[in-house]
Amino acid sequence: MMDLRLPSGLFFTLIGLILVGMGVFAPETRAALTDANVNLYSGLGMLAFGVFLLIMAKLGSGKAGGGKA
Amino acid sequence: MQLAPVDYLILIVYFAFVLGIGWMLRKRMSSSSDFLMAGRSVPVWITSLAFIAANLGAQELIGMSASGAKYGIMTAHFYWIGAIPAILFVGIFMMPFYYGSKARSVPEYLKMRFDEKTRTYNAVSFAVMTIFSSGISMFALGELLHLALGWDFNVSVLASAAIVMAYTFLGGLTSAIYNEVLQFLLIVAGFSPLAILAVAKAGGWQGMASRLQPVMTHAWKYAGSTKDNPMGVEVFGIVAGLGFVLSFGYWCTNFLVVQRAMAARSMSDARRTPLIGAFPKMFIPFIVIVPGIAAVALAKMGAGYSIPLTDNGGPDYNQVITTLMAKFYPAGLLGVGLTGLMASFMSGMAGNVTAFNQVWTYDIYQSHIRKNAADRHYLNVGRVTTIVGVLLSIGAAYVAHYYDNIMDLLQLVFGFVNAPLFATFLLGMFWKRTTGHGAFWGLVTGTVVASFTYCLTVAEGKGGYIGNVHEFPSAMAQSWWIAMLAFTGCLLVTLAVSMATRPKEQKELEGLVYGLTKMPDTSGDVWYERPWPLAIAAIAILIVLNIWLF
Fold it and tell me: What's the start-to-end Cα distance of chain B, in Å?
């Protein structure tokens, strides 16, 4: 069985990178009612979550996860 | 709302991943049970999240944020008093019978416990219901995308349906379940920033409370009388109608969710699927209901946000979530939010299609149309049914598009069919004397009682086709009372007919009825893998939440 942590980890890493990229290279992109650099912060959050899933997939084909090949 | 190229990029990345997951799983589909039942081999954390995600469709997201704006935090009772107790009950008490009986579906359990006619009644009504629910959900999404982005209704409906069809056709239930997990995570990622940003802008919870009527921010304080809250309900209706009859009817007997638990690897995993799912479930109100409440507070502040209006000038709460996103999400995160909305639609639709698939193939086709074919044949039937199911859903979406009122009526009809079902299961699983005739006529009575109640009472100008015996303060109160009466009617008739007819031999009921079934022994497992400690932990958190928002 496929280890779902791998594709979902990749997905969130990718989306996180896109948002962080927006936050860094286009920091003036703002919505009408927000003042903070929303893309940067939420992107960092998603990137961290994606990397966490990837590490979990790498570490464990153990019993906690889905890694039985 | 205007989308930037980066938003489209995110949407495309998401589509690529869901299709990719379906593509990677396609090779594993070698039997009908792989395709329709995921081969009973899915890890428990995945089934748990899918269990929650299959129910978290677009209609649920849009509807719950709309109800949040309309009724306030009392809407959370749909989760806390509604879903959670029923979810815990199905995990602890009912899963041993569902999973242990080796039944492949909920209707098939009814066949084993009762008889063919009860199974067929349930299978047919369930099949019709899933098609219409996925059609209504598709309609809700298509209309919202049209209003928010100006996307063509036809294009957005057909394109999103085509993607769901592609990945369920390739990988069957496994693909639907795996994608539901990705979709669930994406819904959380796409919606929680909105809750945080909107609440912060409205001055935090205290700031919101100071700007709103007190009933909006209290879950119980104004539930003493139907006159005190805009929902028009009181404690008894909440606990008995929503909490007991409606929610138990849904979470304990609806194959759409039960199917996820039945795909688990073992009995222990199957029981823990709902129990683990309960934990994320109880926090979903904070990302779907709270933004709706914040929207009303923001509109009162005059800070640049106002509640969208319908054509006739009333508030259009269904658009709250997309208009908030437009105001709070910059290009980039906006793409994630929108993708989250698409993801919720897809997980709901794939849930319906896969449940329809299995019930059609095993409970209708195999038991009535072609009995003893090779397994290969049923695998092909399952694949074809995926396509047919999606096409029928699209048809239902257009019915909803052109005949808005018919859909209201149909949704009520589902209530008529669903509400009595829990009485049947309760008696069937816990009273060995219950007979097939009792179950069947009880169900029919429940449906008839519900129809008559609807035709004799009025709420918000609806119902009362025969006469007006009673007027309810809200449509919600009416539907809860219909459910309670239908449940009671079904319970009484099932009891009476069962006493008058001959029960099955005890031997035939082993594994199907409480008292004649060895409950799984979990004493050797660590505490967090045992059902009761998990359930008690969930209840403890639930109580804290309710006290906090009393």
Answer: 37
Between chains, do A12 and B336 touch, taking CB under 8 Å as contact? no
Span A12-59, pLDDT tens digits: 999 999 999 999 998 888 888 888 899 999 999 999 999 999 999 888
What share of residues in chain B are helix, strand, coil (percent, to 5)? 75, 0, 20
Q: Alpha-carbon distance B317 to B69, whole Å?
A: 7
Residue B46 has a CB neighbour count (10 Å cut-off) of 25
Chain A interface includes B328 (CB < 8 A)? yes
pLDDT score recorded for residue B461: 74
Partner-chain contact A29 B331, CB within 8 Å? yes
Q: Which residues of A touch B189 (CB under 8 A)?
A: 12, 15, 42, 45-46, 49
Nearest chain B residue to A50 by CA distance is B185
pLDDT digits (tens, 9 = 90+) for B204-215: 888 888 888 888
All domains of chain B in start order, with CATH: 5-402 (1.20.1730.10), 403-519 (no CATH)
Sequence-ordered strand ranges (E) for A1-69:
none
Q: Do A66 and B330 touch (CB under 8 A)?
A: no
Tell me if chain A has a CB within 8 Å of the CB of B28: yes
pLDDT grade for A67, boundaries at 50, 70 and 90: very low
Please identify every stretch of chain B with a pLDDT value under 70, giving residue numbers as ranges.
Answer: 403-415
Alpha-carbon gap, residue B474 to B67, rounded angstroms: 13
Q: Where are the domains positioned within chain A?
A: 5-27+35-59
